[in-house]
Amino acid sequence: MLTRLLCLAAVSHAFVIPEIVLHKGGVNGGVASENAECSRIGRNVLSKGVRILRALSSFLPFPLSSRILIPGIATGQRGGLSRGHHLCIGVVASHHSGIGGGGFAVVRDEDGAYEVIDFREAAPAAAFEDMYQGNVQGSIRSGLSAGIPGEVRGLEYMHKNMATTPSEIAESMISVLQKENGTMTLEDLRSYQAISREALEISYRGYKLYTSGAPSSGAVLMGILKIMEQYPVRDWEDVDLTIHRFSEAMRFAYGARLELGDPDFVPASRKVEKMLLSDSWARTVRGIILDNQTQPVEVYDPREIYTTDGQGTSHIVTADKKGMATSMTTTVNLLYGSLIMDPVTGQQRNERLLHPQRLQRIRLRPSAANFIRPNKRPLSSITPVIIEIPADPATGRPARLYTTVGAAGGSRIISATTQVVWHLVEHDFSLRRALAEPRLHDQLMPNHVLFEYGFDNATVDSMRDRGHEIVRVAEGLSAVHAVRVQGGVFEAEAEPRQKDSGGSTA
């Protein structure tokens, strides 16, 4: 198995085209991802007029008809859903994605109904809050740091295709983790289930936005946009002031994020999400924001609590002419996860269980909403989004798909995705320009604003004059991919900061 994976990875890399690939004028659909070859595979499937979830499986790190990672479940035969598909993202980018991790997906069906699939990693049944006491390193790179992988369960759910694991694969994975002091068991794998959740929804500047709720961070994106909606669009003409306001909106929304957690363990999380989506909260925040200066951290987060996030993430977007769309992000958290590889499958094991001592070392209070509990799913920055044009009762025209978008990049997933949506909806940018526009990032803690070097120096200076601590950074800390449809014609764009990325339409 490992030899097969390495050979396929070598073949894929041999044909990588190091530039954005855009096929204009496609009417069947579009796909975009971090790898142009994977996008072309999905495009070729769409060209045959097959369902979009079949195209999505072109990106997967294995064919779903394979028996992988779910012991004790019978194999289903549902039309050979993945027959003929190739290993792709999980092979060429196994350092940050693959069946050793998990993620979230927002799915829009042909009738315009939305569903969120939560296949986030979960803590093993033997996990407990103080499991890393005196062993902080164990929370980063060890078998103890790995959560129950959910990717296969999520894909099984989406495709309605049951899968099994030859006992040697499941047993190998558990054996490797336990040798590295892990507590995960075969029963943890058997009992893990993907969760179907309702999508979060808001109206924003005449569009409908849908995203995933906790334990992902879609509500944070919506909170930022609801705050910005309180200001006139024409204020964009004063770029310096608008960027300050956007940074302040991020600070308030990221501050609220610290109260989010797995809703099955943190019921108050739903109340926080409801607040972030409300116009009343957005109006209140606008009243607190000062146009001439930023404010101390305690204004945005009185308790000064903090959560961390990783960098090992990949995002895929797909859309088709029937109105079906997906926005899916997968992750192993840190690059190369827990630095543990299963020698049977060659897959990396995730590093997803957070220990409070990692925050205490930098003098920050950890968020109690994300203390470890058995089977609890950690908070994630993942923020997949689908945008639609609402139905028009006057003309009887139904709701229409507009854009599917999402990002990779740890805690910068939220800010990067928000800025692309903001530019598309408020500023009427082309998809290519929205992705290429310089980005800023302000997650409140640490108390500074990251500005890509592409930002105008005058704008950065104006932020400094308003009291912001500025850090200039190179491009490439986030990667956004999107597909948009206008007048029945699709455009697919991948992250221009990412060398091998590509979007393709059919």
UniProtKB/TrEMBL annotation:
What the entry lists under SUPFAM superfamilies is as follows: N-terminal nucleophile aminohydrolases (Ntn hydrolases)
The residues that the entry says bind L-glutamate are 120, 331-333, 380-381, 410
Cellular component per GO?
A: plasma membrane
Active site per database record: 313 (nucleophile)
GO molecular function terms attached to this record: glutathione hydrolase activity
- Entries under InterPro entries matching the protein: GGT_lsub (IPR043138), GGT_peptidase (IPR000101), GGT_ssub_C (IPR043137), Ntn_hydrolases_N (IPR029055)
GO terms of biological process kind: glutathione catabolic process
PANTHER family recorded: GAMMA GLUTAMYL TRANSPEPTIDASE (PTHR11686), GLUTATHIONE HYDROLASE (PTHR11686:SF62)
Full protein name: Gamma-glutamyltranspeptidase
Q: Which organism is it from?
A: Parascedosporium putredinis
Its organism's taxonomic lineage begins at: Eukaryota, Fungi, Dikarya, Ascomycota, Pezizomycotina
